[in-house]
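Encode chain A's predicted structure.
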Amino acid sequence: MRIEEAFRTGLKMLEESAVPSARIAAEVLLMHTLACDRAYLYAHPERHLSEAEQAGYACCLQQRAGGKPTQYITGHQEFWGLDFRVTTEVLIPRPETEHVVERAVELGQAMAAERAPAIVDVGTGSGCIAVAASRELPRARVLGTDISEGALRVAAENARRLAPHARFCRCDLLAAVAGRSVDIVVSNPPYVPTTAAAGLQREIREHEPHQAVFAGPQGMEVYEALVPEAARVLRPGGWVVFELSYNTVERVRALFDERWSEVEVRPDLAGIPRVGSAQLRVMS
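Encoded structure for chain A:
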């Protein structure tokens, strides 16, 4: 079977299985199987696949047609222009989360003139936020926390390749972080209500780690625990930066009491409220 034939066969299979973005998935899985880039696929359509390559591509297609996300099949996802290793232990990094990094880096750069900021990424998962922040703020002290040992192994692997100064710690939220020791708390927490599970894509519902997706019955449970924890660990004048879902914005905003100021919500490129931030007041 030639490359062009393999691609057409794969595309047809994925389209018949109602896989979203079937063309991209068929291409990516074929590139993964052949260990080549897209330019090679289209420059060598007549190249024949070996039996092992045909079997490998068929296996990838079967997994994708069955709902397994492409990123978990290939083990890779791009984020912040970097190649991250991903497994089923971690949430797949999304482009929208780059807006969270942008806000955290903006705040970190403003602090850097006075001191190297201390940043904690809560629920670090693949380490994508921690790694990106560490690369953009090379003087910063960046720590990622997670309750999942598997996720921390993935994060540490990514950091070794991409940002070796980032560190990781297993704990629930900020339990292992000392009070008044942090300048920025950043997080993409779980915020999907468990009651909304049936409405999710099967790729998310059946394959991504539930503890990284679902917060609890209301979808607010992690925010409600994290805001007071952030107030405990932040230095006066420090910041918290969260990823939000469209239906949690006002409820999250209401969590910030008189201890907080500069509460702000920024949209993503689609105009959807995506990033919340607030500053812990400097009390006189």
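The first strand starts at residue 76 and ends at 79.
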